[in-house]
Write a sequence for this structure.
């Protein structure tokens, strides 16, 4: 059984930075990690990827050969990957024995709530390779500073959740920068817990551009509330504690915490409902600090408490 994450989100939400930081953190706590780049437009990777879709298809070549724009080109690339899924499966098989997988997907949001190619790729991998994946949907935290953009992000998150049909965690990324975007109308908990959205109506009505769509906005907010599926975790990728808390949540959602447990269904249920409290920081604190500030120590320097 192999565990991993499907990292998605709009352009600029920090997917590649997330994969880079998350892979470093997971290696720090003792996991072997493989990052799989499935974004054919991402040609400046800050991390070492185990598999790169550009070895199969490149967006620039597709755009030139078929006279397509970047959006059409990405749809073509995902369709091409689906038709050549055997290529990806063969690349993944050597990693299945002992690696944790991070899939870095493109930022074109239509791929995850409108088109079926990306979903088909994920589902085929899950079925054929017995993967346990959680979708990590990154949303830039600055959207909270604009009520209209925040409602749009809720609709995008809900549509993506319903379309992908995976264990799903929505994340407000770059939370460390949120104060630089201006004062929020409500406390951060209002935006992460997606509380009573009717309170946003007053702020939306202050904007003449959105006031005339008052009724439409109200109905859209009610759609989000009726499904009652959307909430957000927060993430500062440079904060070890923030990343660690998110990892705990992800491990609970895809079943990683249950992988080595031999217990009854009752015990599994108890673990599932209680707060996660196992130790993720197995290595000496001094080594953690050195790593976080860029000092790389040999693996033999680490020891388990």
């Amino acid at each position: 059984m192999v565990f991993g994450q499907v990292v998605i989100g709009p352009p600029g939400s920090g997917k590649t930075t997330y994969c880079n930081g998350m892979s470093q953190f997971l290696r720090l706590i003792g996991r072997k990690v493989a990052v799989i780049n499935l974004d054919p437009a991402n040609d400046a990777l800050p991390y070492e990827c185990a598999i790169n879709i550009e070895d199969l298809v490149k967006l620039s070549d597709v755009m030139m050969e078929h006279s397509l724009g970047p959006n059409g080109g990405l749809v073509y690339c995902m369709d091409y990957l689906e038709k050549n899924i055997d290529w990806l499966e063969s690349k993944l098989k050597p990693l299945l024995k002992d690696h944790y997988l991070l899939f870095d997907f493109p930022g074109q949001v239509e791929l995850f709530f409108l088109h079926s190619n990306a979903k088909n790729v994920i589902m085929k991998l899950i079925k054929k390779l017995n993967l346990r994946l959680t979708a990590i949907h990154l949303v830039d935290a600055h959207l909270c500073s604009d009520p209209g953009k925040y409602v749009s992000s809720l609709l995008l998150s809900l549509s993506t959740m319903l379309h992908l049909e995976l264990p799903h965690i929505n994340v407000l990324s770059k939370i460390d920068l949120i104060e630089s975007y201006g004062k929020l109308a409500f406390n951060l908990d209002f935006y992460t817990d997606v509380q009573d959205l009717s309170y946003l109506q007053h702020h939306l009505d202050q904007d003449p551009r959105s006031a005339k769509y008052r009724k439409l906005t109200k109905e859209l907010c009610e759609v989000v509330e009726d499904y009652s599926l959307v909430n957000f975790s927060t993430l500062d990728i440079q904060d070890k504690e923030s990343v660690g808390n998110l990892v705990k949540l992800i491990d609970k959602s895809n079943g990683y915490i249950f992988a080595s447990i031999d217990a009854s269904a009752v015990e599994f249920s108890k673990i599932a409902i209680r707060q996660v409290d196992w130790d993720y920081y197995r290595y000496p604190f001094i080594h953690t600090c050195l790593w976080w500030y860029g000092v790389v120590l040999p693996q033999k320097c680490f020891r388990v408490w």
Summary: The chain is about 45% helix and 15% strand.
